[in-house]
Amino acid sequence: MATQVTLELMKQYLERFGWHRYKAVDEPMEKEGIIHTGWRSSPEAKGFNLVIDPMVEKNCLAFRVPKVLVAPLDETPAERLKDLLVAMGFINYRIILGKFAYDPRDGEVRFSVDIPIDENTVTYEQFQHCLGVTVKMVEDYAPKLKAIVNGEKTAEEFIADEMKGELAAASELLRAFRELLEYMERTHRGEKSEESSDEDKPLTEI
Prior knowledge:
Helices cover 49% and strands 20% of the residues. Helix 2 runs antiparallel to helix 3 and helix 2 packs parallel to helix 4. The protein starts with 6 loop residues before the first helix and ends in a 6-residue tail after the last helix. It contains 4 helices and 6 strands. The protein has 206 residues and is α+β, with helices and mostly antiparallel strands.
């Protein structure tokens, strides 16, 4: 059975999601075409382009954000490029869905979510999930990666900032666990004390 993921289905899902500004075009050598759209977080923001590509020949549906930033090999200081790649590797290690990738040919950094579509369809909920992850990851990390390329932050500083929230959460969890252990210990001591008191009482004749 052939996949039911078509360009028309993606257009319907976009309309349902509330995105009405998009352009669907044919792609040479591919059964289904491709959709160009995008978003911006505010009227002042430059925004990002988004490509939705149902590649039925490869049994894959791709959500791609091209040119999140550009850091050409011959124009980017080696130390900044190293920090960029380390930061991207750290992000990819942590996130579950999606990935940032670097193209050394032109220095493009892009984000993509790719899901298999072998002999099946994609529900609107799955489409919404992938689109939401794409927007969130790019909005969250694009400014941080650009700061690294601009020399405003190192990979080490980026990773330290990312870990702060986790360390605080872990510290709070450890504190709560310690309080629980102390409560359990106090309760146990109280029970032992009551048992000792009962043993010291004289037996009542029946």
